[in-house]
Every structure is written in structure tokens, then in C-alpha cells.
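To start, one record:
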Amino acid sequence: MSWAFLRDLLSGVNKYSTGIGRICVAVVFTFRLLVFVAAAENIWKHEHDEFECNIKQPGCENVCFDHFFPVSHIRLWALQLIIVSTPSLLVVFHVAYRENREKHHNQKLYKNPGKTDGGLLCTYLISLILKTGLEIVFLVLFYKLYNGFKVPHLVKCDIKPCPNTVDCYISKPTEKMIFLYFLVATSCLCIVLNLSELSYLIFKYSIKCYLKRHVKKQQ
């Protein structure tokens, strides 16, 4: 899978972000995307082949694996990375709209098309809210799908066509659990950074509006 699109998207958004936003982009790129590509993808690469049950009943291993892993951790993580980064396109599209509008009218309509003020500030705030919400949704989804943030060494399965309760063993459970905790930690960090940036922008805008009103009253 090529991650060039996501990398270019993060690089483009970085130009219009605040200091906190740039830290968040660095966290997503360094501690999530690069870790995913360099290490995590290989750990789950043969998870189905290495999933073993203590019985060779045809179809038993397949249904047990599907029951305990309805969606692969690594595929769900990849989906999370893509979907959580998608709201940033709103900012990129809004800046592109401003630039195209200036070209169409052949005049300078904005002091800086990439400056987060007015409509672009609203778009930026909406993108932060969406990203935070999606991060939380995926954390809940992980928790619900796998009954917590852990990877057991042994699971017991009694689903047909298994003739009775069989023991199934997951490969490299400790290593997978470490990466799962890392995934959860980075998601929580991104949520904190998004909320911090959201609070900072709202506070900054509130102060700006207050000062404008104060100046008008003085005049």
C-alpha cells in the first residue's frame, strides 16, 4: 500500500496549522504512519497463517479466527489513519477555493489565503472537531471489537464446525499487545493535542473579538 497521498496531505495541512497543529502532524507522521509502515505492518502480516488451534477439524480455525478477529488490527489501524486525516482536506480545499477565487477575479481578495481567519477559521475548527470525534470513535470501536485493549495468548472457541471447545493460540501476542498500547497512546495524544488546539483557537478568537469591541467603545 502506498502512503504517498497521506504524506502529501499532512505536509499540505502543516503549512496552515498552528504550533500545536504542527506537533500533532509530527505525531501522526512520525509515531503513527512511520511506525505502521516500518514495523507494525510486518507483525500482523501472517496473523491468519500463524493462528493455530489444537484440532484439525476442517473450517474450525477459520471460523474461530473470524470470530476473535472480525477485522484485522492492522487494517483497522490503517483505516483509522486514513479517515482521521481526511477532515484536513477541508482546510486544503478551502485554501484552494480562496486561491482560485482570487485568480478568477484577477485581484487580491485576501491578505493571505492560508491565514486561519474568517471562514477558514471555521473550517479549521470543524476539521479539528471531526478529527477528535473520529479518534474517539475508533478507540471505542477497537475496544468493542476486541473486548478491551489486549491480545490474549490463548482463546477458547466452541463455534461450529468445531466439535467441542478448542484452544486456539495467537502468534506473538506480547509484541502485538505492545503495538496496540502504542496505537491507543498515540490516539489519546492526538485527541489531547486536537482539543488543546481547538481551545487555543477559540480563546484567541474570543480575545480578538473582545479587543475589537473594546476599541469600538473607546472610539
User: Anything to note?
Assistant: The longest helix spans residues 173-218. Strands lie at 52-53, 154-157, 166-169.
